[in-house]
């Protein structure tokens, strides 16, 4: 059976790995600019919707998995399925709970109830949808943990200014997964860097988004770097920070960190402790606590590596069971669709 996975984003590795595991054709529709001009979100969604529909008509899949948000990607897939004898599933990321999407929750409820399956990345997100929307087709699907060779290219060159900083550093090299978004703890990390002047901190992301940005000499702002360079730089660092201020969020970056077997510090919250309690160090994200946990992560790096290795063995079995379950559901949905038509 022909399957597709629809993504309306520039680069989402976690969805791409899920699509690959399901043997689905990846359909990416993302158009943020027209030349040098930013396209307003409403018009961008119209453009991406038309592009997605055209690609689906050409491929003619019988089953479509679609990443949410934006909910308009799901709406496009729903319309296609309505007229083309197909069924669909939704891969809902935690961002669907963000303030800007709350106004569209009635639409999300409508589309989720009509999907063959709606997957969520943690149990808290599923509980919300079950209690608020009354959905019966929800399922917790934790992220796939990529293998090292699937994400790391050791021949990838880093920008010269980053390579020079790495070459001249004698202390610890700390990598922060960062976008300068509202839920990123970059201010706290910069404050922690001031407490650790002998160590070098790399902060990724488009720093032009940040206002009143002041930082010490031991902080390097990389700007936006593509995924290959992002992973290559992470691999060259000693300790990784994967922090979030967003409630009930499971971070994809933790999966990449564990593929590299790096000691890491993440946010101390219920969801992250539930999934990564055995392998991570947790911080309240205060500068002093971040300093303490970074030093602890490095001191216990070999012990942490052993815990990560054990976690990955069990997690691979978990992923295989999840994919088997989803494939069975897809086949069942396809058979039901045939009976209807």
Descriptive keywords:
341 residues; alpha/beta; Rossmann fold; 2 domains; six-stranded parallel beta sheet; 14 strands
Topology:
Layout: E1 3-7, H1 13-21, E2 25-28, E3 33-34, E4 37-38, H2 41-59, E5 63-68, H3 71-84, E6 87-92, H4 99-102, H5 105-114, E7 117-120, H6 123-133, E8 138-140, H7 148-151, H8 160-167, E9 173-176, H9 186-195, E10 200-204, E11 219-223, H10 227-236, E12 239-242, H11 252-259, E13 264-267, H12 270-276, E14 281-283, H13 287-299, H14 301-340
Parallel strand pairs: 1-2, 1-5, 5-6, 6-7, 7-8, 9-10, 9-12, 10-11, 12-13, 13-14
Antiparallel strand pairs: 3-4
Helix pairs in contact: 2-3, 9-13
Q: Which percent range describes the beta-strand content? A: 15-25%
What kind of assembly state do the chains in view correspond to? Answer: single chain
Q: Could you estimate the helical fraction of the residues in percent?
A: 40-55%
Taken from the alpha-carbon principal axes, the silhouette is globular
Q: What is the makeup of the main sheet?
A: 6 strands, parallel
User: Largest beta sheet: what is the strand line-up?
Assistant: 2-1-5-6-7-8
In CATH, the homologous superfamily of the largest domain goes by the name Glycogen Phosphorylase B
CATH class term of the largest domain: Alpha Beta
Return the CATH topology of the largest domain. Answer: Rossmann fold
Secondary structural class: alpha/beta
Cα distance spanning the termini: 16 Å
Cα gyration radius (Å): 21 Å
Structure annotation, total helices: 14
């Amino acid at each position: 059976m022909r399957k597709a996975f629809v993504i309306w984003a520039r680069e989402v590795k976690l969805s791409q790995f899920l699509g690959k595991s399901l043997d689905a054709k990846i359909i990416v529709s993302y158009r943020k600019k027209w030349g040098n001009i930013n396209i307003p979100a409403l018009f961008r969604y119209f453009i991406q919707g038309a592009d997605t529909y055209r690609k689906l008509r050409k491929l003619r899949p019988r089953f479509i998995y679609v990443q949410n948000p934006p909910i308009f990607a799901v709406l496009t897939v729903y319309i296609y399925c309505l007229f083309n004898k197909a069924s669909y599933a939704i891969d809902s990321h935690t961002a669907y709970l963000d303030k800007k999407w709350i106004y569209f929750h009635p639409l999300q409820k409508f589309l989720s109830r009509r999907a063959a399956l709606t997957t969520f990345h943690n149990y808290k997100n599923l509980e919300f949808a079950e209690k608020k929307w009354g959905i019966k087709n929800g399922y917790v699907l934790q992220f796939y943990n990529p293998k090292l060779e699937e994400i790391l290219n050791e021949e990838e060159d880093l920008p010269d200014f980053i390579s020079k900083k790495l070459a001249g550093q004698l202390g610890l090299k700390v990598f922060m997964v960062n976008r300068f978004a509202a839920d990123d703890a970059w201010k706290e990390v910069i404050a922690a860097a001031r407490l650790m002047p002998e160590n070098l901190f790399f902060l990724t992301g488009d720093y032009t988004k940040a206002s009143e940005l002041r930082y010490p000499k031991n902080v390097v702002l990389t700007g936006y770097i593509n995924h290959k360079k992002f992973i290559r730089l992470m691999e060259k660092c000693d300790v990784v920070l994967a922090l979030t201020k967003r409630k009930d969020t499971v971070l994809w970056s933790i999966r990449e960190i564990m593929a590299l077997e790096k000691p890491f510090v993440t946010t101390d919250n219920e969801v992250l402790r539930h999934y990564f309690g055995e392998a991570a160090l947790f911080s309240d994200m205060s500068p002093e606590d971040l300093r303490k946990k970074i030093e602890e992560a490095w001191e216990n790096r070999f012990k942490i590596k052993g815990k990560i290795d054990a976690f990955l063995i069990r997690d691979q079995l978990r992923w295989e069971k999840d994919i088997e379950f989803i494939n069975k559901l897809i086949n069942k949905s396809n058979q039901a669709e045939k009976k209807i038509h």
